[in-house]
Specification:
Layout: H1 19-33, H2 39-52, E1 56-57, H3 58-64, E2 72-77, E3 81-86, E4 96-102, E5 107-118, E6 121-129, E7 142-149, E8 155-160, E9 170-171, H4 187-190, E10 198-201, H5 210-215, H6 225-237, E11 248-253, E12 258-260, E13 266-269, H7 272-285, E14 294-300, H8 317-329, H9 337-342, E15 345-348, E16 352-353, E17 375-378, E18 382-383, H10 394-406, E19 411-413, E20 423-424, H11 428-432, E21 437-442, E22 444-445, E23 453-456, H12 457-473
Parallel strand pairs: 1-2, 4-14, 4-15, 15-21, 16-22, 17-19
Antiparallel strand pairs: 2-3, 3-14, 5-6, 5-11, 6-10, 7-8, 7-11, 9-10, 12-13, 13-23, 17-21, 18-20
């Protein structure tokens, strides 16, 4: 019989001899993974890793006309979301063991016509993506990542601001000496969305005609800072201003993720939500070989804006992928993708709010997630009276407990803050509507949705152990 009283241990206390080196190796690998700062870059990295571990594209499997137990498949959905599958014995009656994370993160997107000049300064206009505190994006080093097409149809990949030899970008804030009125406003109003303009240039080009034009009282477009910026981009990438109208460019914090704390126990970087869960899910599925039950990893886009669009989890690409695999793995035409989903189990791998002693009033201490206490299970998310949440049942939670303890993973349970403090959502409810047993389960994060977020290395390691154990030991 176990102890009557429950006393939580830190995840560090779960480490066995030799595991700390494994933890540090995993953390270094994850820091490199975080160099992928957009959903496109993450999808590309995931697919490259999948190929290295024997996964082949769904198109290739369809071409071969057959799939069986042990077949490893990946599906690239428009370069922005990915499905990885290792087939088991009976994908329909046994269902699937699914872990689903998302690879988009809060950021600033360039508008379709972004370039303008004011007061001899050139700027890019932006539109923020996801839930952000707008004031946090001012006065920090920024970089630009993304793709842009020329009129001729050439795809150009853009990354500016990550190389130490390159310039960074910047959003101005108001100096403290003139901020009396600004400081009286609510935080949400101190910086508006339309003020998030990225400063990109201040130099006018040297023109041979300049002196002549000035004497004639004429204004030459080529003597503007805006023109100089566009000229630089044209020389480097071959793009012109109208190409921005068909571009997909994102503004993100510049620089690499770093170890944090004097004891190197934490990691600070952009996009922990939700790339820490995506990374550990990827590590876990690449270790799966010839499973009894079909094993799936989902890497979805657009979660931060409601899982919408054809790359978000509300689209049908996952269901269509599984339908294709069912058709390829059996000649029985009566087999039904709906039955497969209703027999499946899932971890919605998304982060939770770590308790911050600097802001205790928005948490309820007994039911908060703590940094360094392991992976966190959120039975429900949502807001207020559990609105918009998936609420996992006790039978499934017991199975999860057994899996995690069998795998030696430290775990904790939590709510996303105190009841009426706010709330949030994940992709859990989307899969639940198909009858999938699902619960939210990810790392606790500090400063979630800030340009830079913080996690514990030991929580990252425990997430990997938990996900690997789920794939290995979860039964129907």
């Amino acid at each position: 019989m176990g102890d009557i009283l429950f006393k939580a241990k830190t995840a560090w206390e779960y480490l066995k001899s030799g595991e700390e080196k494994t933890l540090e190796d995993l953390s270094r690998e994850y820091i490199s993974f975080l160099d992928n700062k957009t959903e496109r870059e993450c999808a590309r990295e995931i697919i490259q890793t999948a190929k290295k571990h024997g996964f082949v594209s769904l198109e290739e499997v369809i071409k071969n006309g057959k799939a069986s137990q042990g077949t490893k498949v990946y599906f690239n959905n428009k370069d922005k979301s990915v499905v990885m599958v290792v087939l088991g014995k009976d994908i329909v009656n046994d269902g699937m063991n699914i872990i689903g994370a998302h690879i988009d993160s809060p950021r600033l997107d360039l508008k379709q016509m972004p370039v303008f000049e004011d007061s001899n300064l050139a700027f890019f206009k932006t539109h923020y993506y996801g839930g952000v505190k707008k004031y946090q994006w001012t006065a920090i080093p920024l970089a630009i990542h993304g793709v842009i097409y020329t009129k001729e149809g050439k795809k150009v990949e853009v990354v500016i601001g990550e190389d130490p030899n390159e310039p960074i970008l910047f959003i101005n804030d108001l100096l403290i000496h003139l901020s009396r009125e600004q400081l009286q406003k609510k935080l949400s109003e101190g910086i508006t969305g339309e003020q998030l303009n990225v400063l990109v240039g201040s130099r006018k080009p040297l023109s041979e005609k300049k002196e002549k034009d000035e004497k004639a009282g004429e204004f030459e477009k080529k003597d503007t800072v805006k023109y100089a910026v566009l000229e630089l981009l044209h020389k480097k990438y071959g793009i012109v201003e109208q190409d921005f109208r068909v571009a997909e460019l994102e503004i993100v914090p510049a620089g690499r993720a770093r170890n944090a704390g004097l004891d190197n126990s934490m990691i600070v970087g952009h996009g922990h939500d939700d790339r820490c869960c995506a990374f550990t899910t990827l590590k876990a599925i690449t270790e799966v070989e010839n499973p009894e039950i079909t094993t799936v990893a989902l890497f979805a886009d657009k979660e931060e804006v409601g899982s919408v669009g054809n790359t978000g989890m509300q689209a049908m690409y996952f269901e269509n992928c599984i339908a294709e695999l069912i058709a390829l793995s059996s000649k029985d035409t009566s087999l039904d993708v709906r039955r497969s989903f209703s027999n499946s189990r899932m971890l919605s791998a998304d982060v939770s709010a770590g308790f911050d002693p600097g802001f205790p009033s928005v948490f309820e201490k007994m039911n908060a997630a703590y940094i360094g206490n392991g992976i966190c299970i959120n039975k429900y998310t949502g807001s207020g009276g559990k609105a918009g949440s998936n609420d996992a049942n006790a039978e499934y939670l017991q199975k999860i407990r057994e899996c995690f303890e069998q795998g030696g993973a430290a775990w904790q349970t939590a709510e996303l803050g105190s009841i009426d403090a706010g709330g949030g959502g994940t992709i859990a409810y989307i899969l639940a509507k198909h009858g999938v047993e699902v619960v939210d389960c990810g790392l606790p994060v500090l400063s979630m949705h800030a340009p830079l977020e913080l996690i514990s290395k030991v929580d990252l390691y425990m997430a990997y152990k938990a996900y690997a154990s789920f794939y290995k030991t979860m039964k129907k």
